[in-house]
Design a protein that fits this description.
about 10% strand; binds zinc ion; about 300 residues; eight-stranded parallel beta sheet; alpha/beta; about 40% helix; binds N-carbamoyl-L-aspartate
Amino acid sequence: MMKDTLTIQYPDDWHLHLRDGDMLRAVLPETARHFARAIVMPNLVPPVITGADAQAYRARILNALPEGMTFQPLMTLYLTENTDPDDVAAAHASGLIAAVKLYPAGATTNSASGVADFDKVRGVLERMAQIGLPLCVHGEVTDANIDIFDRESVFIDRVLDPIRRATPGLRVVMEHITTAQAVDYVRAHDDDLAATITTHHLVINRNHILVGGIHPHYYCLPVAKRETHRLALVQAATSGDNRFFLGTDSAPHMDAAKQTACGCAGCFTATNTLSILAEVFERENALDRLEGFTSRHGPAF
Ligand code: NCD
Ligand code: ZN
């Protein structure tokens, strides 16, 4: 007989965009309904850069939470070339932040204040390694001459691997991975490295964005790759390997900003994520591993 219920520990989302103001109030319940905690991305305009910024944003999030709902926002700081290592360490010591986010300058939505010269953040990264504060990484190079479908794998070779070698002990989460190369890189390195996988990258490849007309609501960064990569992601997510866990990258935008001549990047998936994941894991005969992916591997890391 088909089982039609599955009980799992309350999931967490290890990469989420909650935005601010009216959008925050609109989308927060969609996450709080299903998730106990989430790593909250700092790419507001202007970004969440200092401990004081994160403190204020956290208060706005809790204030937007509807009566009777519980949710714990895990705050992050947006790494810039001017980030003060002492401010980061103090925010960590007080329990305010759970991670620091690295955006290569210009890589994605609201990343203009990100890092262009990686030497300038060496001091912050070294301090993070000392205090055990993880770095969440948007792993794409931004060079105009690198094909958009190659930007993640090139980033691993040119930026991520050198940073990790130069900063022993730095704990890194490769976020929203989209390639077999990223899966292989995580598998090849035992300590201090993990990766999040989004819901949408488990179910769409680049054909879904481009075949039969352009589908702006499937466009996000890193952009979905070819089917072989999607299959590698499904394999990683459903394998039970605890270095892979859920980060939805649920990223709401107004329709007007998506459905236009130059539509912005981001897929809003908070509402339907868990049912989609259940379908993906069931198809792989791996429903018994869903809880690891949604609820256990992330907290353990
Ligand atoms: C995110 C957003 O809209 O803030 N967009 C996206 O395509 N994923 C930014 C990000 O996480 O890259
Ligand atoms: Zn994101």
